[in-house]
Every structure is written in structure tokens, then in C-alpha cells.
Amino acid sequence: MTPIIIRNTYTVVPAEPTWTGRFPLAEWDQVGTITHVPTIYFYDKPPDSFQGNVVDTLKNSLSRALFHFYPLAGRLRWLPQDRLELDCNAAGVTLIEAESEAELIDFNNFLGAAEFEKLVPQVNYKSPIETIPLFLAQVTKFKCGRISLSVKVSHAVVDGQSALHFLSEWGRIARGEPLETVPFLDRKVLWAGEQLPPFASSPQYEGKEFEEPPLLIGETDCVEERKKETVVAMLKLSKSQLQKLRSKVNTSEYADPARGFTRYETVTGHVWRCACKARGHSPEQPTGLVISVDARSRVQPPLPRGYFGNATLDVVAASISGELITNELGFAAGKISKAIKNVTNEYVMTGIEYLKNHEDLKEFQDIHTLGSTEGPFYGNPNLGLVSWLTLPMYGLDFGWGQEVYMGPGTNDLDGNSLLLPDKTEDGSLILATCQQVVHMEAFKKHFYEDI
């Protein structure tokens, strides 16, 4: 691929003065992934009807959007006991302007290319955390006239729902439209403190999410597995293939007649079984599946509309490879469904208390870059599968039309997977999955042949 040339790097601050001050992040903000999560959009050449300058449009509208979403313009700071606070200091976000002589033709092939990461803003996590922007964007203009816009958002500050809320409103502002949903910025609703009921003795919460994931039998650490080369694939599941899987799972002996298994439970169960087969596990191999659950509607009262923060938490479905493979798909889907159903108001609140009472949160935090030998590892024999099925991820228009392609940014960690709806809205789904190179072809084979 032709080199990508960085033309300018801008620091964009809120268009008007905003509230300044510091407040601690909620407990759930501070565990799991606290690095940045990437997403990328590709656009056709702006039509003649678009009279503005692309970079100026993005820069000016971003500044106005930050006035409403000012926490994103701040910085994180470490507190004692590896806690984090958000310093709303209006330090600003980063917008990078780049160019390439390349022609954009096939996005799927491009997605897996090594050069892909050059389209995404890079973050140096060795820098002091108080110097790292919480939001970074890069707009790249290609020779053919097409444009890419990639963003990286701090997962310590917002989850996927909130990140997409911000992007959607940024687009509306760029088009000269008013906000659709004003962000709700008060995070005290998820703080640990006197406002929480005394749930800490609940037998429901055991903190299993924070235990080290299983290792391959015979291994004492995951050092060797971390070193193995990985590859990303985007696998489409048609509406008819999905219906076939759902029919299979909802007529199994494990089905709940009062409530069929969801799309996510069905496909994730299928992915879990396929990964176990592709990896050649022994029947007694323990395996864990990490699931991100949005707690917005699960807490009481539900979080306000537009809650801007991190309201997702990870839960783990556990099994052994042999029972996942020998039992029908409904068995795996049932394990996943049970883990999700456990996330009740009491579960969330006792989890907050559990974290609050921990002396140090470092063991629960993943602030390590790709390729690191530290932090949680959810690769072989484990998986992590995040759902974007219900998120408003498509239709990001800044005035020159909606994207022609959208997908997750660079992610080459073994086992990390993402489930998203196809842009055609025909009922098909896309699985973005990262597997070890030695396992990927077998995984693809099982993914389609086992339907």
C-alpha cells in the first residue's frame, strides 16, 4: 500500500467554556479494557452538492459537539489504589489529517491488511495517562477521492453505546441539525457510596468475572499463546443461515419455550463450539466465553436516556470443550443465556460494592497494548464476543453522505470477536473474529458447515 502521509495534527477543544473539575469514575468504568477502542468508516468522494471543506467541517463540528460532551475533552488521572478520576479540563481531542495515493476498492480485503492500522490514530500507552487524549480521529483522503474516518475512544470513559451516541450527534451538528438526545453526564448513579443499598452480602455475586481465564491444559501461563500469529476475518451469516441456527437451537431440549434464544445467544454459542473444534481441544479442556452486557435497562431505576459513560460489564460463561462439542447447540446457547440473565440490578450493585471494597483495581485492568505479555488474555482456549447488534452504528453522515463501509478498527488479539448487523439490513449478520492463523481455516470450515 502507498504510504500514508500525515499532513496536520490538530487539538480540538470545546467551542465554548465548559464545566471544569474532577470526579472519580464509576467502579465499572475502571475495570476491563481501559484503553481506546477503534472504529473506521469509509466514504465515497463527496458529491458536488457538498460545498464545504471536509477537514474544516469535521474540526468545527467536533468542537461544537465537545461543548455538549465535554468529558471527552478531558484527561484521566491516576488516584491511589490504581483508581482513576476524570479531569474535565477541556484539554481537547486529537484530529489528524492524512493523505494517501492509494485507490480504495475492496474494503474487506483492506480490513485485514497490515497497512490498515496506518489509517487509525496511534496511542502511546507508555506516555503519562494524563497526557493521552480520550478521543482521537483521523481523516484520510485517497487518490480516488474516497475518504476514511477512523476514531479511537477511551473505553474507561465511555462504552460502545455512548461512543456511537457521540458520533451520531457529531454528524448531526456537522449537518447543521440540533442534538437528537442530550447526553446525561451525571455519573453518580453508578458510583459506589452511601446511595447504594447494602447488597454486599448477596450470594449472587462471586466476582468470577475477575478471575484469571482458563489456560490450556498442561500450560502454567499463556506466554506462548500470546506470541502466536493471528489473523482477522469478516464472516457473513445470511438471514437464512441465521434462521436455520435459531430453528436448531430453539427446538433443542435446552430451549426455553417461553422465550426463544436470542440472535446473540444463538450465534455466540455456534462460534464458541466452532472455536473449540478448530483449536483441537481435548474433551476436558476448560474454556471461558466473555460476554459484555449493557446494564442500562437492568438497573433500578433504569439509567436515564442518553446516559454518557460506561454501563457495560463483562460476565463469563464457562464450560469444557468436550461438553460444548458433544451436546447440541442449545447447550452452549443455554450457558450464555444463563450468564446474561444473572445480570440483574442486585448483581450490578453488588459488583460495584465488590470492586469498591477491593484495595487495588490493577489486577482487573487491561491497559496493555497489543502484543503485550501482561493483562488478561482471552485467547485460546477462551473467547470474547461483543454484540453491536442493537447499536446505532450505521448512517454516520457529516454532510457528504453516509458511509459506504463501516467496521471495527485494528484488533489482532486472539479470541476477540464482534457481532454486528450487515449494512444491507436484510437480516444478515457479520462476525468479525480474530483467531490464530493455524486455526482460522478450520474455524471458517466449521462456522459454515456446522450450520
UniProtKB/TrEMBL annotation:
InterPro entries reported in the protein's UniProt record: CAT-like_dom_sf, Plant_Fungal_Acyltransferase
Top-rank taxon, per record: Eukaryota
GO MF entries: acyltransferase activity
Any coiled-coil regions, as ranges: none
Keywords assigned: Acyltransferase, Transferase
Similarity-based family: Belongs to the plant acyltransferase family.
Protein's recorded name: Spermidine hydroxycinnamoyl transferase
Organism: Brassica campestris
